[in-house]
Amino acid sequence: MVSKKITVSLCIIVKNEEKTISRCLDSVKDICDEIIIVDTGSSDQTKEIVKKYPVKILDFAWIDDFAAARNFAFSQATMDYILWLDADDVLRIEDQEKILKLMKNLDPYVDAVSMLYHYAFDQHGNVSFSFRRNRLVKRDKNFRWVGAVHEYLEVSGNILNSDICVTHKRMQGHSSDRNLKIFERRREKGESFSPRDLYYYGNELFDHRLYSRAVEVYQEFLQTGQGWVEDEISACGKLADCFKELGETEKQLEYCYKSFNYASPRAEFCCRLGFYFLNAKQYEQGAFWYKLAARLEKPIGNSGFMIEACWTWLPHLQLCVCYDRLGKHELAYEHNEIAREYSPENAQVLYNKKYFEEVLGIGTKKQEIGQV
């Protein structure tokens, strides 16, 4: 059966996004058949900027509930499928092309399409933190957003995991205690928190360096035994970080190992353990964990948070350090070269390359061979 081209409504909720909204709309204006902007109370030039584009702009009275605002935006859509973005997201040229191709060939039985979310980048522009989100959904399925803060789109049915990427481009210096205040007000009212609420409440406390309180909330979350496994794994990492900041080393290690209760070892935790033993000058133990990280294969289709460096160059760079401290310079050089394949512009990798070539006399040997 030949598929007809689908039509797409884009839904975005905004508030004071004058610095980012044009960049976002410029990247999608030629893709979507309809653009719906829901403003939740902007006091800057956001609405004036948006009016320059072919969009439908609506106001929504803010009620401390992101899901309510997104559900309102979705309710205004009229096309076959709904795409959603935030104002500080963009689609790169190659991803615009991919989504146009998808729109022409999408199987009508697909209910939702997930896309990679490139959320953070290193100094060289390489993706350092990514995860998946359900981005394009069939309108007549009436999928709903859930959660007042850190809301998620609850989908079911036939889900296609695509290679399309949404790129997050947050403005420098942007920070806010808005989400934390929403959680605090809900707590004060005695509202019931779902396991997911507890996880994200813990994240807000952690981000504001309220480590003791974050520990309490993360532990409360894990004790429910009802969280999404990726959130449970992530909470173990956050707890390890909290206890590190609080100077409780044994607890830090306890939660690194506890992550293994929820799934097979992840590279992020192997690198955590490797770093702990490296700092403790227990280089054999450090090398063990970094070697394990280097051998792991990235989970296919995993929608949890992933630190790209831990699955690529970082364990090799750290193995280089461990082997150097153990006097195994050839092994150290070998792993530094592997790290260089992944991250050729990394300053530490380049420094190590020069250092080991001097230690091993590699440059001298090449020169002598050339003279012969």
TrEMBL record:
Pfam families given in the database record: Glycos_transf_2
Listed GO MF terms: transferase activity
Sequence ranges assigned to domain Glycosyltransferase 2-like in this UniProt record: 9-121
Entry keywords, A to Z: Transferase
InterPro entries xrefs: Glyco_trans_2-like, Nucleotide-diphossugar_trans, TPR-like_helical_dom_sf
Name the UniProt record assigns to this protein: Glycosyl transferase
Source organism (scientific name): Desulfosporosinus orientis (strain ATCC 19365 / DSM 765 / NCIMB 8382 / VKM B-1628 / Singapore I)
Lineage, top ranks: Bacteria, Bacillati, Bacillota, Clostridia, Eubacteriales
